[in-house]
Design goal:
Helix content: 25-40%
Distance between the termini: 15 Å
Number of helices: 9
Shape: globular
Number of strands: 14
Strand content: 15-25%
Radius of gyration: 21 Å
Strand order of the largest sheet: 3-2-1-4-7-6
Order of helices and strands: EEEHEEHEEEEHEEEHHHHEHEH
């Protein structure tokens, strides 16, 4: 069988190829998972010449099958650039703009862009999870999604189409503050829900003086108002509170596409600001997206 030709059993390989991590799955014709691989072979660990043998190794493990890949593999830092699809965008639009590398038996899913008179934003990888969550029945067609991470994403959908995205550098800002500048050495304590974190949420939400609020982390420790071990939780609360506080969430449902400690902190912040959270399994959403996208691709 030639790689890239749909096999008789209809299985495919789906790869969520991120910046630092890679997750690959064998998806059977009925959408079930046959096998999976997770490793640290993200695009930052790959040179252009590394991709053909990497795909060959995936096929050795998961089967000689067509590959659908999403995420940073299609970015300027990946293997081949798959241009963004402008919002509003649905699964059909992603399929029509997908980049097919026939000699590799590979289809790269494009990202989604937003360009208005006042804002510009992009996403790559999250679009398949959001649309997959809707296609798999994990979220309604009209929804607001939050995907916490180094760069938190707020994604709005209408009629199963992505219509808006806002990216917030919350996690990156915390890492920069922790590793550099005047707060370096003060943010090594634990970051968890508690009084300090919730104080930070209240301070950061709606703050138009975020720089001042962050310097207060240092001043409050120096003047004995806050325990040194609470500084990191308070600073995290300020940043996440600023992020969440910029949204009109009173009574609104937010679908959290994440799990783990950071997702738990966002849940606390969203609910503190009047939102209602619904957890969505990000892996199930991704697999649902690939399974429904393949129909549009004819695989």
């Amino acid at each position: 069988m030639t790689s890239g030709t749909p096999p008789r059993d209809g299985a495919i390989i789906a790869v969520d190829w991120g910046t630092t991590n890679r997750r690959a799955y064998r998806i059977e014709a009925d959408g079930s998972i046959g096998d999976r691989i997770r490793d640290d072979r993200g695009v930052l660990a790959m040179a252009a010449t590394d991709y053909p043998p990497a795909l060959a190794a995936l096929r050795d493990r998961l089967g000689d099958l067509p590959v659908i890949a999403a995420g940073m593999i299609g970015s300027t830092r990946g293997w081949y650039e798959a241009p963004y699809v402008p919002a509003p965008a649905d699964l059909h639009a992603l399929a029509m703009a997908a980049l097919r590398i026939d000699e590799a038996g590979l289809t790269i899913v494009p990202g989604v862009s937003l360009l208005t008179d006042t804002r510009a934003d992009v996403m790559r990888g999250e679009e398949l999870q959001v649309l997959g969550a809707i296609a798999a029945g994990l979220a309604p067609a009209d929804a607001l999604f939050c995907q916490p991470g180094t760069h938190n994403k707020w994604i709005a959908t209408e009629a199963a189409r992505i219509v808006d995205v806002a990216t917030v550098m919350t996690g990156e800002l915390f890492a920069l503050l922790k590793g550099h500048g005047i707060l370096a050495g003060m943010l090594d304590g634990p970051v968890a829900d508690g009084a300090a974190f919730r104080d930070g949420i209240a301070r950061g939400a709606g703050a138009t003086d975020l720089g001042t609020a962050l310097f207060e982390v240092r001043a409050s420790v120096l003047l004995g108002r806050r325990a040194p071990d609470d500084a990191a939780a308070y600073a995290s609360g300020v940043l996440i509170g600023s992020d969440v506080g910029a949204r009109a969430l009173d009574g609104r449902t937010v679908h959290l596409l994440a799990e783990g400690a950071l997702a738990d902190l966002y849940k606390v912040a969203i609910e503190a600001r009047g939102g209602v959270t619904v957890a969505v399994d990000a892996t199930a959403a991704f697999l649902g997206g690939v399974h429904h996208l393949r129909g549009h691709l004819g695989l």
